[in-house]
Amino acid sequence: MGLETERGGGKEGGREARAAAEQHLALAEGKRRTAAHLLHPGINPVVIAMFSKQPRLLAFVLFILTSALSVTPLPADTEKGRRKVVHVLEDDTGAVIVQTAPGKVVTHRGGSITLPCRFHHEPENTDPARIRIKWTKVTDALQFEDVFVALGRQQRVFGSYRGRVFLEQAGPGDASVIIQNVTLEDYGRYECEVTNDMEDDTGFVNLDLEGVVFPYYPREGRYKLNYHQAEDACKQQDAILASHSQLHKAWLEGLDWCNAGWLEDGSVQYPISHPRDQCGRKDTPAGVRNYGYRHKEDERYDAFCFTSKLNGKVYFLKRFKKVNYAEAMKACVRDGSLVAKVGQLYAAWKFQLLDRCEAGWLEDGSIRYPIVNPRSRCGGSQPGVRHLGFPDKKFRLYGVYCFRKNKDETAGGSEMTKSPTDSLTRRKSSNSIPMNTTRVI
Fold it and tell me: How far apart are CA 11 and CA 221, in angstroms?
């Protein structure tokens, strides 16, 4: 009645007023349904429609639900609506946590290693064919290198990892991969990502290598290398640029070097175990001195290189007379070897415990010799690789250190490129020794 009076009292005005009121109520009901569905997508629209006819009851129910949600922590699947959630690793209590391997896994060059990663998905009966497992290597800040991806039975391995990376397949929920014939470049941080439909979760594994850090500068002298030249120099000596953690570990083991060098992250640092005025003042504490990140093209420093266990052997070639550089090269070749690189001599000193008090040529034209047991006539009281510089290559004053690869390495290492599944099948038929027997430290 009020509406009719307001509109002028006629029948036509009454019909228009009722139509406008119904349209207004329908619009309000639609807004209420939309808001309720956005807040609670799991609620049946029929239920929303029922409550929409009683707006006060709907408001009361929504208030109770909202209060409960604000007080009680939600499980991950409720928090993200009806979508499924994948978590990396499930502990013994059944609680789901995001974790792969605590700390790091350690191996050496040429070994095999498992990067552990387990996952638990909700609900339990999710189709395994819809689970995607992806491994990437973190190469720099926000940069990743693809390593391995699997979706159901389909698998793909990328780049230098081809023929060396396989799923461990230790049972349901296992996303671990095995890396065989580990290289120096495999060192670093890896991400395990498990995806179920639109949801994913990740964990990280740090792969460390047993090895040795050594300072390096070329024949041209000290502070002659920009970052890229330092990187190439280490590779030429069977090594890679060391990381900060590797240099820090070497410092803890006693490395003391007064010349700054590039590291793999583009920073310039140097380790001081015995502070002295020539190396940043005597009254400063011992430690790894850091110049920070430097311009990779313009600035020049030395390099700190890292190498690991050899797939071969370094030895001093016994001869009755001294040789010059060219004669040293030929002598090693005649013996079925090559002149050793600097990184190979350091690895032999570290892992073979090569100890020889005779100076010899190396591949870069330097003269060095390894000392494990220091004695007065062999260069001082500390163990290490002695460096006598870069003499004229025509001088016949020295011997030579040669490097010979292992026979299985020179034969192509076909055994190393077989998957664990192939090896298991082969063992059942021939009772051969398990291939992936490298001990994880």
Answer: 106
Q: Which residues pair with 326 in a beta bridge?
A: none
Among candidate residues 60, 29, 49, 182, the one with its CA nearest the CA of residue 110: 182
Q: Which of 212, 222, 260 is nearest to 385 (CA)?
A: 212
pLDDT digits (tens, 9 = 90+) for 42-85: 444 444 444 444 545 544 544 444 444 333 333 433 333 333 33
Residue owning tokens 């604000």: 70
How far apart, in whole angstroms, are the C-alpha atoms of residue 312 and residue 403? 7
pLDDT in tens, 210-263: 999 999 999 999 999 999 999 999 999 999 999 999 999 999 999 999 999 999
C-alpha span between 126 and 132 (Å, rounded): 12
- Between CA 374 and CA 357 the distance in angstroms is 10
CA proximity to 195, closest of 117, 96, 86: 86
